[in-house]
Automatic annotation (TrEMBL):
InterPro entries: DEAD/DEAH_box_helicase_dom, Helicase_C-like, P-loop_NTPase. Keywords: ATP-binding, DNA-binding, Isomerase, Nucleotide-binding. It is an enzyme of class 5 (isomerase). The keyword DNA-binding applies. Residues 179-328 form the Helicase C-terminal domain. One of its GO terms (biological process) is double-strand break repair via homologous recombination. It comes from Bemisia tabaci (Sweetpotato whitefly). GO terms for molecular function: 3'-5' DNA helicase activity; ATP binding; DNA binding; four-way junction helicase activity. This is DNA 3'-5' helicase. It catalyses: Couples ATP hydrolysis with the unwinding of duplex DNA by translocating in the 3'-5' direction. It comes from the Eukaryota.
């Protein structure tokens, strides 16, 4: 990669697994080196300096911990006399990861300020404009330019299934998760071939479900953050190799996993945030193969309860130090609306990435063979609070129509939504990846 003025590019990735994945994919394509320790080898830096002097841009891969604790690299970047650019991958981890990780991520801002005239580039597949504002607040710097590219794989179908429609007809997720034979039947019927990830947010439930399925002769491996590094490596290697086909995991598996065999995800319950939803469903169909992402829901986690929780956490968010804010609360409301109100998941994802998207016919999807056809997610969902939800706890038909219009952000004159979509559809080019062909929602 020749250039009139070579640049030292430091790529920051939050996970060792991601770092290894970067190296594997890029080592034969660009001039890239990997920094694994806090004390960098003098020969490595000498080699980097040689390439820069010969107008060859160099990429150095580091974790946040390595960069924060590597004075050699910081001093080299400051004194080498070449432009320096920092690329922070998976930037959404700054607001979305647990508080135990945030201190290290926030220290990056101080580390980068140590390098004068450097550039910082943030990249993420699941970052929203509110998150960008959050990161600006964390770093104390305004992000000058924001580029967004809306991306949803055309080959992925998103499905919401009420738990009572699954084998056994259970009324709650807890009862279904305890019925290992029913789960095995469901997974085999839905995904007869290739690899699948079963997501559960609770680590104890991951252990219980994995043990129960293995106990009835249905082979699975498990994966969560409390496992030993060797245990994670063995489990991941087995699943990536296709034996077994199923892995039961928390969202710990949602970053840095690239399986050519993965054709499905099953979330037992709503994902804990839209960050996790985007990352988790991003594991499937990475080679263009038809894939399906299923969310299994029940009524145990109600819309009202969710609104109340979010309102509580957001009341004084601007006055809380950034080191202690648990992110994702506002996005949970949109995700709950998507699953509980049977809205269009891809439309919700687009709205999350770019709030400037306005209500428009091309963002409406037809729910095939269903009576309730109006689906979508728009900005007014975010304003729904406990008071609004409780007002309509037992709504009349007119109140239901009003609530639907408020939630969808539709103009009141659009009374007959199904016919409106039907009549408009022939006149439109659905350039947002043909939502109506990608969505199924079961009663």
């Amino acid at each position: 990669m020749d250039a009139p003025n070579a640049t030292l590019v430091i790529i920051i990735v939050p996970l060792i697994a991601l770092l290894h994945d970067f190296m594997r994919k890029l080592v034969n394509r660009i001039n890239i080196v990997e920094a694994r320790s806090n004390r960098l080898d003098v020969h490595l830096l000498t080699n980097v300096h040689h390439h820069l002097q010969n107008n060859r841009t160099v990429f150095i891969l580091v974790t946040p911990e390595t960069l924060n604790r590597s004075p050699d690299l910081r001093v080299f970047a400051q004194a080498a006399g070449f432009p320096v650019a920092f690329v922070s991958d998976e930037a959404h981890t700054v607001p979305s990861w647990g508080l135990e990780f945030r201190e290290e991520l926030l220290r990056l801002a101080e580390t980068i300020r140590f390098i004068p005239d450097s550039q910082l580039i943030l990249s993420s597949a699941s970052i929203s404009l509110p998150d960008i504002k959050f990161i600006e607040r964390c770093y104390g710097e305004e992000i000058e330019t924001v580029f967004t590219q809306l991306f949803i794989r055309r080959n992925v179908k998103y499905t919401v299934l009420p738990v009572q429609t699954l084998p056994g007809g259970k009324k709650s997720l807890q009862k279904f998760i305890s019925s290992f034979n029913d789960i095995a039947t469901f997974l085999n019927d839905r995904f007869p071939h290739d690899s699948v990830i079963v997501f559960i947010e609770n680590k104890k439930q991951v252990n219980t479900l994995a043990a129960g399925l293995n106990g009835i002769g249905f082979p699975v491996v498990r994966y969560h953050s409390d496992m030993t590094p060797n245990g994670k490596t063995v489990a991941m290697g087995s699943w990536l190799g296709g034996n077994p086909r199923f892995i039961v995991a928390t969202s710990a598996i949602s970053l840095g996993v690239d399986s050519e065999r993965c054709v499905g995800t099953v979330n037992f319950g709503q994902a804990s945030s839209i960050y996790n939803l985007i990352q988790e469903t991003g594991r499937v169909g990475r080679r263009g193969q038809p894939s399906e992402c299923i969310t299994v829901t029940d009524a145990s986690f109600t819309y009202n309860k969710l609104c109340s929780t979010i309102e509580f956490h957001q009341k004084r968010v601007e006055k809380i130090p950034v080191k202690t804010i648990l992110a994702g609360n506002a996005e949970l409301l949109a995700w709950a609306a998507t699953t509980q109100r049977l809205m269009c998941i891809p439309a919700m994802l687009l709205k999350f990435v770019d709030p400037s998207i306005e209500p428009a016919p091309q963002l409406l999807a037809i729910k095939k063979k269903r009576e309730k056809q109006a689906v979508g997610l728009y900005k007014t969902v975010k304003t729904a609070k406990t008071k609004f939800a409780s007002k309509y706890s037992n709504p009349s038909e007119e109140e239901q129509r009003t609530m639907k219009r408020n939630l969808l952000g539709l103009d009141p004159v659009v009374e007959d939504i199904p016919n409106f979509v039907k009549s408009s559809r022939e006149e439109l080019t659905l350039n947002i990846y043909q939502f109506s062909d990608n969505i199924t929602t079961s009663k």
